[in-house]
Amino acid sequence: MPHTEVKIVDENGRIVPRSECGELCTRGYSVMIGYWGDEARTREVLDTAGWMHSGDLATIDEEGYCRIIGRIKDLVIRGGENISPREVEEYLYRHPGVRDVQVTGVPDAKFGEELCAWIICVPIFRRAMRISARSAGGKSLTSKFRAISSSSIPFRRLQRARFKNIFYVSGSPGS
């Protein structure tokens, strides 16, 4: 992305060699300037040089491609309930309409954190959902997927997982 810097750092903030794992940091005009009205939280993720520490574990290969491979903080704490984003992702991958998915925690005033899913749908599923949504009185793809995923999760600890946001992304897995 033009005018954006990216680096991978170790736990001491030093840049790691290519292909080594560390925390993904970004800086540039498109990176947030802070959390609205929350200076303490802003200081947690933005350092004094303007680098945003994403909390993602990543590598940059010899050609400069970045691959996110995990999370530093791997639990979402929703109202005292520990939810593993990875476990939710693995469950959602079982749905035939999901090609790729990333689940993260986002701040929530009531529960502390809620889940947010970024989903790449299988193209034929997305078209079929649009057609069925029109015939079902205009319900959106998001509300249908939210209902499918939330109502059919068999694991007790995941049954309380609710999505604050679901974003549908164009692209291919790993991109």
Can you characterise this structure?
A hairpin with a 3-residue loop joins β7 (98-108) and β8 (112-121). It is globular, with a radius of gyration of 18 Å. It has 175 residues and is an alpha+beta fold. The protein has two domains: 4-71, Luciferase, domain 3; 76-168, ANL, C-terminal domain (GMP Synthetase, Chain A, domain 3, 2-Layer Sandwich). The chain contains five helices and nine strands. The protein has helices at 39-45, 85-93, 123-135, 141-151, 156-159; strands at residues 4-9, 22-28, 52-60, 66-71, 76-78, 81-83, 98-108, 112-121, 163-168.
Short description:
With 175 residues, this protein is α+β, with helices and mostly antiparallel strands. It has helices at residues 39-45, 85-93, 123-135, 141-151, 156-159; strands spanning 4-9, 22-28, 52-60, 66-71, 76-78, 81-83, 98-108, 112-121, 163-168.
Could you name the key traits of this structure?
alpha+beta; GMP Synthetase, Chain A, domain 3; globular; single chain; four-stranded antiparallel sheet; three-stranded mixed sheet; 175 residues; 35% strand; Luciferase, domain 3
Layout of helices and strands, plus pairs?
Elements: E1 4-9, E2 22-28, H1 39-45, E3 52-60, E4 66-71, E5 76-78, E6 81-83, H2 85-93, E7 98-108, E8 112-121, H3 123-135, H4 141-151, H5 156-159, E9 163-168
Parallel strand pairs: 8-9
Antiparallel strand pairs: 1-2, 2-3, 3-4, 5-6, 7-8
**In CATH, what is the class of the largest domain?**
Alpha Beta
Taking the sheet with the most strands, its summary is: 4 strands, antiparallel
Could you say which structural class the secondary elements and strand pairing correspond to? alpha+beta
The total tally of domains equals: 2
Roughly how many Å apart are the termini?
Answer: 13 Å
One letter per element, helices H and strands E, the order comes to EEHEEEEHEEHHHE
CATH topology of the largest domain: GMP Synthetase, Chain A, domain 3
Quote the beta fraction.
25-35%
Please report the total strand number as a whole number: 9
Task: Estimate the global geometry from the Cα principal axes.
Answer: globular
CATH architecture of the largest domain: 2-Layer Sandwich
Q: What's the helical proportion of residues? A: 25-40%
Number of helices: 5
Mean pLDDT: 77
Low-confidence runs? 131-141
Measured on Cα atoms, how large is the radius of gyration? 18 Å
Q: CATH homologous superfamily of the largest domain - what is it?
A: ANL, C-terminal domain
